[in-house]
Write a structure and sequence with these properties.
elongated, 312 residues, 17 helices, disordered C terminus
Length: 312
Amino acid sequence: MAGSLSFLSQPRIRPVTKRPPNPSSSFLELLNVSSKSLQVTKHYDLAVVSRVYRREIASVQGENPVKPDFKRLCKERKVEAALETMDEKERNGGSADLLDIVKLIQICADLKLLEAGKKVDGYVMRSSSKFKSSVVVLNNLVEMYCKLGDTNRAREIFEQMGARNLDSWNKMLLGLAENKEGEKALEIFSQMKGDGIRPDGSSFAGVLMACVCVGEEKEGQKHFESMSRDYGITPTAEHYEVMVDLLGRTGKIAEAEELVSNMPVDPNTRIWETLQKYSKTRAQGQLGYPLSPPGPEARWHEKGKGQPQHKS
């Protein structure tokens, strides 16, 4: 009996098991788990060490490493970090969301990041058809390149689009006009109408800006009159401002004054300033309007009729 129970007096041997590191351990303690096997040394770049750390902890704990939130990076406008996350997602067989791509394109345009914008462009062009065939994505790329001054690439994307909507034409038209490429903008407007696309107020703002670029006063007058006559579009203050600029640049000061005097809406400060910029006589009262505009709500008043009338 005693012999059969002799094993009770022997010390128990516990099986050796590999325990995962304590999540609360310090960074160096956790990194030490894999320092020998992965040959991590102090000469490694911090970013490399960080990646090794995340992979090792994930393998030991059986969890996926936490990846940066792409939407958060876009919201914080950390473009380079967002691009790295997007590339990593692509390498793992995934892809970014369409709205995320659009947001990233807009950030590149706002922050004037041409090289980053080119990377997003490259991602779109080598990705699945859901991006390359998206009118929204391609429209934003056209707008981005125009804002960053690369109208050649914008035109390439525009011409390669399988389908275009009114916004596509307007972004290309306005982009060329804003980059002082008036003749090309007028060509786009003609092509637009030839393809049966009905222009809107933004289209006419772009074509009037194009006329300013090339100094085509008669062409501008024709389009300005065509807005309401042929398309039923009521000119806004923006259209009047561009027309005043066009008339002033071509020396038609009297015509510019008459245009402002007949405006159905109150001329704003920008219109006053544009008109006065081209006036030959600067003395207050000689042209029938004050040297400094009385405010955005001031109305035109004819010479000799007293103070400007305000809209009630």
